[in-house]
Amino acid sequence: MALLQLEQVVSNYGSINALRDISFEVNEGEIVTLIGANGAGKTTTMHTIAGLKELNGGKILLNGQDISRWETQARVKNGIVLSPEGRQVFPDFSVLDNLMMGGYLQTNETNQQTLETVYELFPRLKERAAQAAGTLSGGEQQMLAVGRALMGKPRLLMLDEPSMGLAPLIVKEIFALIQRIRDLGTTVLLVEQNARVALRISDRAYVLETGRIVLSGTAAELLVSEDVQKAYLGM
Questions:
Q1: In 3D, which of 154, 67, 138, 155 has the Cα closest to residue 102?
Q2: Are the C-beta atoms of 210 and 40 separated by less than 8 Å?
Q3: Other CB atoms closer than 10 Å to residue 50's CB: what's the count?
Q4: Which of 28, 91, 150, 168 is deepest in the core (most CB within 10 A)?
Q5: What is the pLDDT, as a whole number, of residue 40?
Q6: CATH of domain 24-36+75-232
Q7: Which sign, positive or negative, has the C-alpha torsion 98, 101, 107, 113?
Q8: What is the Cα–Cα distance from 51 to 115, expressed in whole angstroms?
Q9: Quick one: average pLDDT of 2-29?
Q10: Region 40-65 average pLDDT
């Protein structure tokens, strides 16, 4: 059974159809990527799954259970956690305080255990635990955003544009960490403009255009697809 399923999901901004009957699934243990141009509906998809954007039609299922009308907090508590575009750390709060906010629905004991895992994945966050988040580099803030999401003990970790604005070496490091997070048992749904790098670490992918899924397949298949190469890989 799929961990996450979207069935003919519709989401509108006023009279504008942002998502038009999109259906896809994410299986346990996968990295699945959504690719598409700006305005294709990728972030709207993530926000709709997270409960931050109203669902205007269709269903969202978690392990076969309809969660379409659940509040965001209930989705987080049941393992759907979003690391948003633009990182959105709390700049005046310490690194540790930012991390602990991610675990606000967990017990103190669970948070301490998860914190050790986050520090193992991101040693720089441990080194800078007392530092104000706003003084971190862009790459360190992205690590903090992902670490904060991991504090929520996600079954499904949704990452929205984790490489945005980062230097190539840092991008490589971030994507290696995403693979490691998956290998540790967390399923990942990824939105990423850097389609080539995202496809290289993914199991499967879906291509969105103007709120519709127009192409899907294994990541390896889409990497060699002429349509994907011309539209998204600059070839």
A1: 154
A2: yes
A3: 19
A4: 150
A5: 92
A6: 3.40.50.300
A7: negative
A8: 26
A9: 95
A10: 96
- pLDDT tens-digit profile of 100-133? 999 999 999 999 999 999 999 999 999 999 999 9
Query: Can you read off the two tokens belonging to residue 5?
Result: 């399923």
Task: Write b or e for each residue in 131-154: b if 16 or more Cβ atoms lie within 10 A of its Cβ, otherwise e.
Answer: ebbeebeebbbbbbbbbbbbbbbb
Question: For residues 193 and 60, what is the distance between their CA atoms, to the nearest angstrom?
Answer: 24
Task: Give the mean pLDDT of the chain.
Answer: 94
Compute the average pLDDT of residues 4-31: 95
Q: Would you tell me the crossing angle of helices 108-121 and 138-150 to the nearest 10 degrees? A: 140
Residues composing the chain: 235
Q: What are phi and psi of 131, to 5 degrees?
A: -80, 145
Please give the structure tokens belonging to residue 138: 């862009």
SS (H, E, C) the chain: CCCEEEEEEEEEECCEEEEEEEEEEECCCCEEEEECCCCCCHHHHHHHHHCCCCCCEEEEEECCEECCCCCHHHHHHCCEEEECCCCCCCCCCEHHHHHHHHCCCCCHHHHHHHHHHHHHHCHHHHHCCCCEHHHCCHHHHHHHHHHHHHCCCCCEEEEECCCCCCCHHHHHHHHHHHHHHHHCCCEEEEECCCHHHHHHHCCEEEEEECCEEEEEEEHHHHHCCHHHHHHHCCC
Q: What ranges do the domains of the chain cover?
A: 24-36+75-232
Q: How confident is the model at residue 149 (pLDDT cuts 50, 70, 90)?
A: very high
pTM: 0.94
Q: In this structure, what token pair is assigned to residue 66?
A: 């309809």
